[in-house]
Structure formats: structure tokens, C-alpha cells
Amino acid sequence: MPYQAPASEQLFLLENVLGFSRVSDTKRFAEASSEMVDAILNEAGKMAGDVLAPLQRNGDLHPAVLENGVVRTSPGFKDGYQAISEGGWVGVSADPEHGGMGLPLTVATAVGEMMASACLALSLNPLMTQGQIEALEAHGSDHLKSVYLPKLISGEWTGTMNLTEPQAGSDVGALRSKAEDNGDGTFSVTGQKIFISWGDHDVAENVCHLVLARLPDGVPGTKGISLFLVPKYVPDETGNPGVANSLRVVSLEHKLGLHGSPTAVMEFDGATGWMVGEPHAGMKAMFTMMNNARLGVGTEGLGVAEAAFQKALEFSQERKQGKTLVGDGDGTILDHADVRRMLMQMKALTSSARCIIFDTAVSIDLSKATGDAGLAAKAAFLTPIAKAFGTDTGSEVADLGIQVHGGMGFIEETGAAQYSRDVRVTRIYEGTNGIQAMDLVGRKLMDGGSAAFAVLAEIGSTAAQAEETLPDLAAFLGAAEASLTATTIWMMEQSDMNQRFAGATSYLRAFALTLGGHYLLKAALAEGGSGPRSALARFHIRQMMSVVDGLCSQAREGADDLYAMDAEALAG
């Protein structure tokens, strides 16, 4: 059975768990009615299942190649991309002034999940472009907006992010790329960038690079960095691709997965570029797109998790192996308790990640539509959780999918292993998951914990609402909320940030699992406390969340034990 987009499940969660009606009730997003969103999600689901999913294997078996300076993409990718662009899917949430649909980010996120499930390697292309659109909408000059936004939104041109250099990965401030003012409104950009997703290709007529570089008077570190838009082809006076710019693809990386996504080493040699935003404020402009890009990467993990689960479930319903202990004993492996355990874990993790990611998107939409600072703070707090837990879930569910397949999971022809290889990088790029956790216990608690405690209050409210209908689950969730509250207080009491950082990953995981319980319990209440969603909530809260207290305890242990062994002792 091919991939089936979970449009009905997405819509149920938006309407019954996440309060999406609050978004459609605003003036800004009044057109995003339930009926419209339903129609959009179903149409996107058809495109993902019918057009993109058949390309998944091609991208793995026939990677993008660099031939005589030209990047050629995997078979079928050009037609697949055309379906995305002609359907208007690149500009789902872009400003209608420049040709976008103007729909909520939440809708774009739901569509993004579907495309990532169907073919992650190809879906990266529009995701990069969407980030660039957002950065230009917020920081681009009127000239840049008029020339570039209509082309990017239509999908005629695509966008990239150029941050990383060989010596400047997570430490972006160490970059060496430079830019010099040409005196005519343009700049000459020189430097080398690595790990550039879709840095070049043959699926669209122009590739527009957002490049971080330092002006001659830029101070060391991130405060001296500026942002430039550097196109592959410089637009002519009519706004169409003109002369080739002074940039080239040095090579394409050979990767563990995502073979269909050309990951380029880019060299800029005095390339013509235009500044985006103010001088030396490049990181501010870049973070406009990076924050939502982190949500997008979390969505990539979610998409792969959903696809890997569907494949594993289908296999488990067909494969017979050994005598089962339920029914007449002649069932498929789905009847084996350990296989059922793995599938339940896969479904619980995937559902939890989807809710966290969608709630983050809903909070972003509401904050934009209403100007509510509390909602903006909630979105900011949830973003590192959405990115880290979404991508961890993608990896964990894909790995479990291989295990469900048994020996066949290790055989490439089944496609189970590809999910694991493709999704692995999502835990690394757009800020490693360790960095997301450090951000959560660092910057995100700098408000005195107000955003964290507001989210914890929501969790506590759900537990209270469930006391009569599902009292045991309410008690489990309430206990987890209390443990997280105590750990949050402990984190804020630590003046030595390394004490916080040592337990940051455990803290983030505990928060994510508890949020999952919160959302799944709300879904259970929405169906009256009895039914498949209630069964999933019960499994997640009573089994998956049993580790929360231990994770919180681990988070409060601090850094001393981590440094009790020096390098020599570690090697001994």
C-alpha cells in the first residue's frame, strides 16, 4: 500500500485538540475555515501520495550528480518539483501581495509533513525557499521584494541558506566569508560555504542564495555578520535570469542518506549580491527564517516517522512468522506482543510530535494575527522542543520500523532502511538537538520561566479536566507536570550554565513526552474517554511517560559526574 497522507488525523487534532479555530477567527486568517483547510489538506495529500511518493526510491538509488559544472537531479525530481510549484505549494503561507496564498503557517506545516513523508529529499527544496521568502518579507528592500518574491513564491526560482563553513559550523561567528561594497548598491561576496542543501539543480531556472558574510568593518563574532542575497543568475532589467554570477558548485557531498537532495560545497568569487537587512545585522535577519526553519526540520522528522510507521504497520499485517498467542495462533506478526509494543511506541511518538509541532505553528500564527506576546513566548519556548523531539522521533520511529521488518528491514529493497538514513541528519542541521536543548534551558528560561510555567499550567489544566473521565491518566499527567515544574525551578536556580546544560537533553525529552501526554489526553477527552485515541493516550501516559520522573532526576544531577573522568581516563 502506498503512502496515505493523514489529512483526517491532522484536521481532527487542529479542530479538537489544538484550537485552530482561534486562528481562523482572526481577521488575518479569516479565510482559513475548516472547510477550506480540509480541502487543501486533501489536495496536498493526493499530490504527495500520487506524485512525490513514487520518487522516494529514485532519489536514493540515483543520487544528484555534478557533471561538467552542472548539477543533475534524480529521475523524476524535476516533474515532481513542477507539481509542487504549479500547485502553489511553495507559497502556501506567503504574502498574497506577491502571489502567495496567505494561509496560516499551521496549514503550510501540515502540507510540509505530507511532502516530507512522501519524499524527504525533494521536500527540502521548497522548505529552503519558504525560509528565504520569510526572510525577504521581513528584511528585504522594496526592490528585492519586487524582483525576487514573486519568482520564489511561484516556484520559478528556489532559495538556499549559506551559513556553514569548514571552520564555522555551530559557531557561525567564526566565518571568513567577506563582502565589499561596490558603491552601486551591490556587494562583492567571496568565500566558501559547505552543506548547502539544494545549492544547485536543474529543476528551476534560478537559485537564490542567502549568504552570511562580513563587511570590512564588521567586528569579530556574530555581531559583525551581514546577510546578502546572491543569485546564480543576476536578474536583468526585466527581472528574468541574466548573466551567470561569479559562483560555482565545487562538489556534492557523499552522504549517509538524502541522496536525492544535492548538498553542495559552494564557492563565491566576488559574486554580485544585495544586502538583506541592515549592515552587521545578518544574524537577526537570518534568525527570522531559522526559527521557522527549525520548526520545518522538526516537521521533516515527523513526516518520516509517519511514513516509516505506515510501512512497518503494512508489513506487520502481511508477514506471518511463528505461532501467535492471540486468536487462533495463526495471525501475522502484528499479533506478537513485542511487535505490537513497537508499533504502539511508533504511533505514540509520531502523534506526540505532530501535536507539539502543530501547537508551535498555531501559536506562531496566533501571535502574528493578534500581537499577543504570551503566544509569541509560547511559540519560542516550544520551537526547540518541536525541532529536537520531532527529529528524534523521526530517527527512533524509523529505527523501530527496521526492527519490525526484521531481516528484511536490513535489506534495502524494502525501503525501511532508507527512512533511517534519510532522517538521521535532521537531528544535526538547523542547530543540533543538543543546541536546541541548551537553548531551552538557557535563553528560553531567561524570562524568569514565565513561558515554561504557562505551558506547564496548560498541562495541569488538562490533567484537571480529565479527573472525572480518566482519573488514572489525569494523576499520571499531573505527577509528570509536578516533576517538570520542580526541575524547571532547579534549572533557574543554577547560575553555572554548565550545570543546566548537562541535563538539558533529559529535560527537553521529559518536557516533550509530557506534552505528548497532554495532547493525547485532550484527544481522548474529545472522543469521550473511550475509543482508539483514548487507548493511545493510555499507552503513552502509562508506559511512554513512565520515564519522565527519571529524566527529570537525571536533568537535576548537574555536570560534575560528566567531568569526573579526564580525556586520558576516558581513553583508558
Report on the structure:
The protein is built from 20 helices and eleven strands. Strands 3, 4, 5, 6, 7, 10 and 11 form a seven-stranded mixed beta sheet that branches. The chain has a two-stranded antiparallel ribbon with strand order 1-2. Strands 8-9 form a two-stranded antiparallel ribbon. The chain has helices at about 5-15, 20-25, 35-50, 55-60, 75-85, 105-120, 120-140, 140-155, 280-320, 335-370, 375-405, 415-425, 435-440, 450-465, 470-495, 495-500, 505-525, 530-540, 550-555, 565-570, and strands at about 65, 70, 155-160, 180, 185-195, 205-215, 225-230, 235, 240-245, 245-250, 265-275. It is globular. The model has no long low-confidence stretch (mean pLDDT about 95). By secondary structure, it is an alpha+beta fold. The chain has a domain at about 285-555: Butyryl-CoA Dehydrogenase, subunit A, domain 3. A hairpin with a 2-residue loop joins strand 1 and strand 2. Helix 9 runs antiparallel to helix 12. It starts with 6 loop residues before the first helix and ends with a helix.
